[in-house]
Amino acid sequence: MFVPAIKGQGTEEQQKKWLPLAYKFQIIGCYAQTELGHGSNVQGLETTATFDPMTDEFVIHSPTLTSSKWWPGGLGKASTHAVVYARLITEGKDYGIHGFIVQLRSLEDHSPLPGVTLGDIGGKFGSGAYNSMDNGVLRFDHVRIPRDQMLMRLSQVTREGKYVQSDVPKQLLYGTMVYVRQSIVADASKALSRAVCIAVRYSAIRKQFGSQDGGPETQVLNYRTQQSRLFPLLASAYAFRFVGDWLNWLYTDVTQKLEVKDYSTLQEAHACTAGLKAVTTSATADAIEECRKLCGGHGYLNSSGLPELFAVYVPACTYEGDNVVLLLQVARILMKTVSQLTSGKQPVGTMAYMGKVQHLMQSKCAVKTAEDWLNPAFIQEAFEARALRMAVNCAQNIGQASNQEEGFYERSPDLLEAAVAHIQLIIVTKFIEKVHQDIPGHGVKEQLQNLCNVYALYTLHKHLGDFLATGSLTPKQGALANEQLGKLYAQVRPNAVALVDAFNYTDHYLGSVLGRYDGNVYPALYEEAWKDPLNETVVPEGYHEYLRPLLKQQLKLSRL
Ligand SMILES: CC(C)(COP(=O)(O)OP(=O)(O)OC[C@H]1O[C@@H](n2cnc3c(N)ncnc32)[C@H](O)[C@@H]1OP(=O)(O)O)[C@@H](O)C(=O)NCCC(=O)NCCSC(=O)/C=C/CCCCCCCCCCCCC(=O)O
Ligand SMILES: Cc1cc2nc3c(=O)[nH]c(=O)nc-3n(C[C@H](O)[C@H](O)[C@H](O)COP(=O)(O)OP(=O)(O)OC[C@H]3O[C@@H](n4cnc5c(N)ncnc54)[C@H](O)[C@@H]3O)c2cc1C
Fold first, then answer.
1. Which of 6, 141, 458, 493 could serve as a FRET partner for 22 with CA atoms 20 to 30 Å apart?
2. For residues 497 and 386, is the Cβ–Cβ distance under 8 A?
3. Which cofactors is this protein said to need (predicted)?
């Protein structure tokens, strides 16, 4: 994040100076924004950067305990430099949060520079690999940096100390977070596909109950409950991959537009990166845990690969923006869009469907049979009607409040659900668009169509209350969707293993005895057990000190 921060907020000159050093690892940088007292509320950060015109320097200082930088990855032990976000103060005025490049450690002996106190913040969630990341704490005691180490692409301070705001939206200060959020969506798909690969392969070899007259037991993958829990996660892995590809396109397109000072899609980029990051990471974190449960007891072994994957993955719901805070950002944009509908301003991009407000507010879903739910047009319209009606309902309720802001906070739980509905519509839309493309490979398109319908109908089934409460569906149509879902599971079943093999993960990368490509699980589980250090001695350490005396004492007592 150190590099994209300099690329996005540094001048050409600053990029020329600092990026080669970072690329060649002559310096190691981190992104020091979050503080002990503030993470979500960036504008509440307390670290100060006060301009001293006498020396043409900024004085970086941590005025309070809560202003200590806290969490930045790489900060505790590895980084020599940081992009530090601090309140810019010049001529006695506070101009809010800006980025500054600050050296933290000597390039000679890695010792902290004068005025810099830093270290690691301690162990994190379980024994997961995230403990290999030195998330750190950092305090400044009046550390001086040259004025040219303020990142000056978005705003400047002159030699005399005058603050100059460039003619660019101040939200570009948040550009690094937008960049990482869009990459997190692709990573959600990777993490989810790893968990699903393990669970599908293991479910194919695990047999439990169901043997007739001594025949083989039933593969658990054939149980409808296993399929109804597992196949929506398989479909989600593909859904997040395709929406992540599209989001990367959107981000690239917005970045190119920014180069020519076209800021027209900045809001769309913010809403989509924030919302998709929130929805895909929440779903993926829950799904990895579900995959552990789908593997029964063996899923709880570290050798299954699932506990580690979960422990490393779950902070994605928090870092790069707490998911609730991000969804409320989406909700704000939805409310703004709804308020503009009466002005005749046509919504664009992923909000364009809201322009069909007249139709969508009174449309009746035309589904009459279970098979009708295989028609993408019916799915698309049902999801559009649900999302729009939830947004309009929120806007109407907020409108009844005496104060817009008060109304927004009062209705924030409903706004959260409306934001999720909008983002799920985007995911469904991009999956439908994907399967409409020419897709190479015999039968591949049909399989992806099945998964697209599984993702859409499972999401509809899981959120059926929204569809019914908004009148977007009737209970009968909801039941038909569920009926069709069961038929789709039967179609996915024969290809389930092939659909996870298609992720093409090596056994090494998967790191799971349950997810081995060869399915040879039991010998691998048994072999793995003996690698446990506890098994280095047949008689456990502590027997003579603790167990033996206890056993002997009990034996004596029993003879009395
Ligand atoms: C947005 C906030 C919540 C609020 O900001 P604020 O300034 O107060 O603004 P508002 O008043 O709400 O809004 C004002 C207007 O600005 C608009 N706006 C807001 N944000 C943006 C934006 N980003 N872009 C554009 N516009 C924006 C908003 O809509 C308003 O517009 P209008 O006026 O209404 O028109 C802000 O405070 C905020 O963003 N808070 C969240 C803070 C945050 O996200 N912090 C993150 C810190 S960095 C961090 O956490 C780093 C973590 C590192 C994790 C590692 C990541 C790894 C990813 C890859 C993993 C690879 C693994 C590989 C796996 C494998 O391969 O195996
Ligand atoms: C593993 C990890 C790595 C990280 N790496 C970095 C890094 O490299 N650099 C960096 O700068 N930071 C980093 N962070 C910090 C991270 O960005 C913040 O923790 C994150 O942004 C959440 O902010 P917070 O901790 O202040 O949460 P809070 O906002 O305090 O969240 C607490 C609760 O308050 C709720 N809440 C907050 N505001 C509102 C609101 N307005 N309305 C409703 N509910 C609200 C939240 O939903 C949540 O339930 C990292 C964090 C983690 C866990």
1. 141
2. no
3. FAD
